[in-house]
Please model this.
Amino acid sequence: MTQYSAVLPAKITSNESSVKDQAIGIFDSGVGGLSIAKCIHQYLPNESLIYVADSLFAPYGDKSSTVIIERVNKLADWLIKQNVKAIVVACNTATVIAIDQLRSRVNIPIIGVEPAIKPAALHSKTQRIALLVTEATAINHRFLALVNKHKNGAQTIIQPCAGLVELIEQGLHESKECRLLLNDLLQPLLKNNIDKLVLGCTHYPFVGTMIQEIIGDKITIMETALPVTEQLMRQLSDNNLLASGDHVFQQTFFSSQVTHHQEKLMSTLFEKKSSLQPLPLL
Ligand code: DGL
Model:
């Protein structure tokens, strides 16, 4: 496996306000992390964002840990070269597999995504919760340890969702094919008297409405965009890195495989024409 050396923030400058006004880097295997980016923009409207969709390598869920760690390090190093002041790993799979290693070599705040197992278990009346995750997350030891730590005596069902990220990446999140796949994945869970369904992949909120239609309104869907945003706010505040009040934000989007669907999604979510640029080959 490639050895990565320690990386310092690309621009440690004596001018404090310029560090504060540097962008926050956000990345995911594709468009999924936009669900997190949108929430960050909502709560931190004057922060500049650089978003990277690593769509050429999507899905991460069927890749080996070695491949995922390699991609995560390359993306983080590229973002650091763009002078980001913090990085949000807006991907559950990348977080469970690569964040510890990344944090050990990079000395800017690195915020990961963790599925909402704790609040789901805490508020479950039936004491049965289900988690939708990628295949790589489902077998990851860090994820399984997290489930054990937070399940609070609840019975947990882990459902890997092979094929779902691919459909969302292709813009087929409202298709019949997607409904059929979700039906297959969700029907067995419904027989288990669950009352909380945790979305353990940042792509899945894009099919949240369809999921809710299938599971009905007695089961609550739990997602993580807000807790991640709160954690980011805490980290920026603790490190005196919140953007200054008069900072005019900029949003820049990159993709390792630009598609029309991504362009459309970004414009819709961010309510203005967003330009999507090709990520240089890493
Ligand atoms: N959005 C990523 C996650 O949260 C999807 C991973 C994948 O590409 O399989 O896990």
The longest helix spans residues 65-81. The beta strands are 24-28, 49-53, 86-89, 110-111, 128-133, 155-160, 196-199, 220-222, 251-255, 276-278. The first strand starts at residue 24 and ends at 28.
